[in-house]
Amino acid sequence: MNQEVLKIERKINAEAKRLFQAWLNAEDFSRWFLSGELIGIESVIMDPRPGGKFVINMSLNGEVLPHIGEFITIDEPHKLVFTWRSHATDDRDTLVTVTFTDLSNTTEENTKFSNKNKTTLVTLVHEMLTSDIQIKNHNFGWTNILEGLNQWFS
Question: Which of 3, 23, 145, 147 fits a 20 to 30 Å CA distance from 136?
Fold first, then answer.
């Protein structure tokens, strides 16, 4: 079975710590984590610790689409690693790594303006996908999700 890797990057004008925390707070997460215009979030349950599980119930055309996983690494504010399983992975575990790289100029002059000059590169790598259609669907979904995160911080 050929295993595919998807990588998406997005520069977001926000502090890495705040972006990182938005992935672990179920209430905040449900506000920005949307993978497309027709997709909604019905519920989010999170146990944000290594070994902790999550359930994201997305809704599409009246159907609930559960997305489940387990947190493997929580290295605040640098890296999250978790498994990801859904109908779109043929109900197989895949692996997602999200890193947060501070791109801000940290000179003394810029620190006076606090979060206004904070820029973070969010890199999402989704591994263990098994087909071109899985890559295509997840590329669309994760691209929209990172755009939703960007808009939430705008």
Answer: 23
Rounded Cα distance between 64 and 56, Å, is: 10
What CATH number does residue 128 fall under?
3.30.530.20
The count of domains in the chain is 1
Q: Does residue 148 sit within a domain? A: yes
Q: What is the DSSP string of 90-115?
A: TT--EEEEEEEEE-----HHHHTTGG
| 41 falls within a domain | no
Return the residue matching tokens 């689409």. Answer: 65
* DSSP of 11-70: EESS-HHHHHHHTT-HHHHHHH--SSTT-EEEEEEE--STT-EEEEEEEETTEEEEEEEE
Asked if residue 19 is part of any domain, the answer here is yes
| 45, part of any domain | no
pTM metric for this prediction: 0.90
116-127 pLDDT per residue, tens: 679 999 999 999
Neighbours of 145 (CB within 10 A): 20
